[in-house]
Amino acid sequence: TMKNPVPQAASLLLEKLLLLVHVRPLPAGSDGEPPPQPAPGYYDTSCFKRGDLLEVPRTLFIHFGIYLGENRVAHLMPDIMPALTGDRRQIQQVVTNKRLLLGVITKIASIRVDTVEDFAYGGSILVNHMDRLFEDQVLSSEEAARRAEKLVGATAYSLLWNNCEHFVTYCRYGAPVSFQTDKFCETLKMIIRDQRSVLASVLVGLVSIVCLGLAPSTTLPTIFIPFFLWMAG
Fold this sequence. Notes:
Shape: globular
Low-confidence stretches: 18-31, 215-233
CATH class of the largest domain: Alpha Beta
Radius of gyration: 19 Å
Number of domains: 2
Strand content: 5-15%
């Protein structure tokens, strides 16, 4: 017998939801601090130019940043620390999973400048890979870098409306968009529309309230509507 593809899609969706907010699994026994990063010079930055859009593909998501030159990358990450202290030294420390998750829940982020090593987190880097999607909309490299530098600091966070991809597309192309979010939403709609995915829809809705920062008044219908459709069927 064939397995129902919808619950499988729901499971994949929930996994992707957590990864989209950049949750990075830590080694067993870790006390919450990130594992050691590659030593400076691990990445060859000689091919990077100021204003380049850098992508780091992960298993189910892509993290984005704008290269500022001199081994520095501006990127947006959920982070609770800017709401707790004004001490730049504490804020600039590498973001731990606890800081990141609290940032997601409270919808707080920071656009920060890190080394290429800290930004890439050991992953491979693609350069200006999104340019092909925007054709004549690419701004000058200097304009992209200046936009990124101007936005550095605390900002609101939303998986749907203000994530790392929105940040870089605004800087380099002048329009904040997120193709990852669009794909995620299409998958979510597919699950909700299917009457066989009642429990998956309930779970997705509850996770959405916490992770997406959606008001319960807009998320609860996604939980109950599939249930009533299933009961009617």
